[in-house]
Amino acid sequence: MTRAQWQVLTTVSAGTALLLLDVTVVNVALPAIAGDLDADFAQVQWVIDAYALTLATTLLTAGVLADRLGRRRVFVWGLLAFVATSVVCALAPDATTLDLARGAQGIGAAAMFATSLPLLADAFGPERRGFALAVWGAVTGAALALGPVVGGLLVDGPGWRWVFWLNVPVGLLLVRATLRVVAESRDPRPRRPDLPGMVLFGAAAFALTLGLVRAHADGWGAPTVVGALLAAGALAVLFVLAERRHPDPMLPPALFRVPAFTGTLVVAFAQSLALYPLFLYLAIYLQDVLGHGPTGTGLRLLPLTLVLFAVAPLSGRLTGRLPLRVPLEAGLLLIALAQLLLRAVEPGSGWEVLLPGLVVGGLAIGVISPALAAALAAAMVAVLPPERAGLASGVTNTFRQLGIATGIAALGVLFSDRVAGAPDPATGVVDGLDAIFLAATVVALAGAALAWPLLRGLRVSAASA
């Protein structure tokens, strides 16, 4: 691999890591944010969900615009928007301002995320593309896992606002690096933006998340909850109908006729829903029940990250030697095992009881992340030319972020209900953790069962054929 290719890989991976770090970096900061801004649990949930939702719902449109306007250009625009909204987040005087700024920040992140894989696909030939995607996949998994550690150090140091201030110098450095080392690329036959599809898709996802977030406080039968969930269903139907009629749909129905692509989406959604939201609830347990500070909380979650760092390179090398169904399915099964091990938490347990589950969780991410990126490339080679890589990566990353947003909201209902019905807060948190660990186990196993027949015969070699 040439020096220029290493520079592109480093710059694009770093940009992607920065935006994904902001998915989980706020987890250990939420208690401090809630105290400083006098926010309730629903408001701090939106600090994560607003970002994940706008990231998910604008990814596909950002990919279309990048194919038309230039991928490097949109990547840089995304970085600049990310930096600007990070400043607003850092200066937010109240929870509403922070939630709105996080939503805007997600749009900048979407522009970066949608262009990352296409930029790599353009810089690397078929013989090196699998390796580059495996490295990118490992970095993205590590960024999500490393977030609580970084967040803890910042909250205990200069304060929670530096979770966002840190993005400013790093983002500006990446803008300079991108303009210097990344070549421009675009689709010679760009699609037209599907604005109706983006609006309907975003509205449906927002309504679903709103209904789930409000379910605990208002009750499942409350008009706000029922109305939001019914609206989500109706908007989803309208979205499907609109996609069938649009000449250039943002989510082409034809893609779902490719079994391997559908299986990859199932894995991406199940992994994100079953694992990444748990950082929030483990952070609450470690801080509010066991009394550890933000840094102590981040460090106690570090075993997951260390195992991930050790396993991901080995997994990336094995990705080309095995059917991709093997690491993807193994990753989901390991996630299920990690959840079962975490159910050992009881009132009075020390943090050490989390260690087996964290180690297995790190192993799961290390196995699945490199394979997920490679599976996407392999699944798409038969139906999309390389210049359309933005569409494929956008769809997969959309489902990953939807998994995180849905997981935060849905698991939050289980968690809040158990806390509210417990004789004391500590018991409630432990009971809530047990409930979400069990639910996440079911999600991971269901994802593995659904994806198994769809991923048959998928190999990295297909991507380079």
Give your account of this protein's structure.
By secondary structure, the protein is an all-alpha fold. The chain has one domain: Up-down Bundle (Growth Hormone, Chain: A), CATH 1.20.1250.20. It is 78% helix and 0% strand. It is built from 18 helices and no strands. Helix 3 runs antiparallel to helix 4 and helix 9 runs parallel beside helix 17. The longest helix has 32 residues. The two termini are 19 Å apart. The C terminus is likely disordered. It is a multi-pass membrane protein. Pfam families: MFS_1. InterPro entries: EmrB-like, MFS, MFS_dom, MFS_trans_sf, Sugar_transporter_CS. This is MFS transporter.
Keywords:
465 residues, 18 helices, disordered C terminus, transmembrane helix, Sugar_transporter_CS, transmembrane transporter activity, MFS transporter
Average pLDDT confidence is 87
Percent of residues in helices: over 70%
Q: Tell me the number of helical segments per DSSP (H or I, 4 or more residues long).
A: 18
* Classification by helices and strands: mainly alpha
| Percentage of residues in DSSP E strands | under 5%
- Which fold name is given in CATH as the topology? Growth Hormone, Chain: A
Number of strands: 0
| C-alpha termini separation | 19 Å
Subcellular location: Cell membrane
Membrane topology: Multi-pass membrane protein
Keywords: Cell membrane, Membrane, Transmembrane, Transmembrane helix, Transport
Pfam families: MFS_1
